[in-house]
C-alpha cells in the first residue's frame, strides 16, 4: 500500500507536491499526495483501454443548382461511450453540371472529305478514294452480275486450229471483280482429235489470262467437254490473276482448240454450246 502505519509513524509511498510553499502571508501550504500504488481497495491509476473508432455512414445526397459549391457536413448520430463506438452521417450536396452548348446539324452530303455530288449517288455506298488525307467517294453497290453471249458461232476446222465460239463484253464497273465462267460444248471429231474448251480474258493489264479451261481426250469422236472456271483471284487478297479492276472494260472469249497432231476434221455446233459469265465483286 502507498500509506502504512509503522509504530507511531505513517509511511507514504508516492510523490508529495507542496503548493504555495513560498507564500508566507497565507501561512498555508497544500500537500498533494500522489500514490504510486493503491490505497486500501482503491487501485492505482492506469491508462484506460483505447476507445472504438467511430462509424461513418452516407446520409443524404442533395442535388444542388448549377454554379453552386459542393457541400459536405458530418452529423453525429450517436455519442458512443465505453465499449460503444460513436456514429456519424456524411451528408453531401453535389451541383448539377451546366448545360452544354447546342451542336450544329450537318448532313453527310455536306462533308468536305467526300469527292462526289450526292445527286449522282442514289443507291450508292461510300468508298475510300484516297489516303493522307483520307477522302471518300460514292460508288455503286458491288452486286454480282451475270452476262451471257448474244450469239454463238458454229465452227468447223481440220487439224490443229483455234476457233472462237463467242465473246462476252462487260462494261467498266465501279469495283474490282473476277469472272467465273460456266459452260460446256459437245464436240464432234474423230478418235484422233483432242478438243479443248478455253475461256480467255482481255481486260486492262490482264490480257490473255485463261480463266476457264478443260481438255477433251482422244479415242472418242463425239464427247461433251465441260468448262472448269479458274479461281486464282479468289484465293487471297494478293491474287491478281483474272481480276478486272474498277473502271476497266472486259472481253471474254470462249474458244475451242484442237491440240492433237492430226489432220482430221472436227466441228462444234452452236446449239450444243452453253456459256455464262458470273461477275463476282472482290476487295480492291
Features:
rod-shaped, 18 strands, 9-stranded antiparallel beta sheet, Jelly Rolls, 284 residues, 3-stranded mixed beta sheet, 49% strand, mainly beta
How would you describe what is shown here?
A hairpin with a 4-residue loop joins β8 (124-130) and β9. The chain is 0% helix and 49% strand. Among the domains are: 3-35, no CATH class; 145-281, Jelly Rolls, CATH 2.60.120. It is rod-shaped. With 284 residues, the chain is an all-beta fold. It has strands at residues 3-6, 9-12, 14-19, 30-35, 55-64, 71-78, 87-95, 124-130, 135-140, 145-147, 155-158, 161-170, 177-188, 195-202, 209-215, 222-229, 250-258, 265-281.
- The secondary structure category is mainly beta
Number of strands: 18
By CATH, the topology of the domain at 145-281 is Jelly Rolls
Radius of gyration equals 52 Å
The CATH class name of the domain at 145-281 reads Mainly Beta
Number of helical stretches of at least 4 residues: 0
CATH architecture grouping of the domain at 145-281: Sandwich
Which percent band covers the strand fraction? Answer: over 45%
Q: What distance lies between the first and last C-alpha atoms, to the nearest angstrom?
A: 105 Å
Stretches where pLDDT is under 50 for at least 5 consecutive residues are: none
Helix content: under 10%
Question: Mean pLDDT, as a whole number?
Answer: 83
User: Tell me about the biggest sheet?
Assistant: 9 strands, antiparallel
Element string (H = helix, E = strand): EEEEEEEEEEEEEEEEEE
- Overall shape: it is rod-shaped
Amino acid at each position: 500500500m502507498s500509506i502504512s502505519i509503522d509504530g507511531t509513524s505513517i509511511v507514504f509511498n508516492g510523490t508529495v507536491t507542496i503548493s504555495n510553499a513560498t507564500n508566507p502571508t497565507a501561512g498555508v501550504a497544500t500537500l498533494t499526495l500522489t500514490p504510486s500504488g493503491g490505497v486500501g481497495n482503491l487501485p492505482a491509476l492506469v491508462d484506460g483501454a483505447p476507445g472504438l473508432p467511430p462509424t461513418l455512414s452516407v446520409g443524404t445526397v442533395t442535388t444542388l443548382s448549377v454554379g453552386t459549391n459542393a457541400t459536405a457536413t458530418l452529423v453525429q448520430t450517436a455519442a458512443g461511450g465505453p465499449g460503444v463506438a460513436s456514429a456519424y452521417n456524411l451528408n453531401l450536396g453535389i451541383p448539377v453540371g451546366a448545360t452544354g452548348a447546342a451542336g450544329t446539324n450537318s448532313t453527310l452530303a455536306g462533308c468536305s472529305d467526300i469527292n462526289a455530288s450526292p445527286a449522282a449517288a442514289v443507291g450508292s455506298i461510300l468508298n475510300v478514294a484516297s489516303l493522307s488525307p483520307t477522302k471518300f467517294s460514292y460508288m455503286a453497290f458491288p452486286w454480282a452480275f451475270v452476262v451471257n453471249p448474244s450469239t454463238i458461232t458454229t465452227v468447223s476446222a481440220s487439224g490443229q486450229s483455234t476457233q472462237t465460239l463467242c465473246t462476252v463484253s462487260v462494261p467498266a464497273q465501279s469495283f474490282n471483280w473476277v469472272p467465273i465462267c460456266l459452260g460446256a460444248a459437245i464436240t464432234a471429231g474423230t478418235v484422233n482429235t483432242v478438243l479443248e474448251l478455253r475461256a480467255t480474258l482481255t481486260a486492262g493489264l490482264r490480257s490473255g489470262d485463261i480463266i476457264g479451261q478443260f481438255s477433251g481426250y482422244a479415242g472418242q469422236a463425239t464427247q461433251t467437254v465441260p468448262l472448269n472456271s479458274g479461281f486464282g483471284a479468289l484465293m487471297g487478297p494478293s491474287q491478281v490473276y483474272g481480276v478486272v479492276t474498277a473502271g476497266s472494260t472486259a472481253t471474254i472469249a470462249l474458244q475451242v482448240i484442237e491440240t492433237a497432231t492430226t489432220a482430221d476434221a472436227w466441228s462444234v455446233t452452236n446449239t450444243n454450246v452453253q456459256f455464262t459469265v458470273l461477275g463476282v465483286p472482290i476487295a480492291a
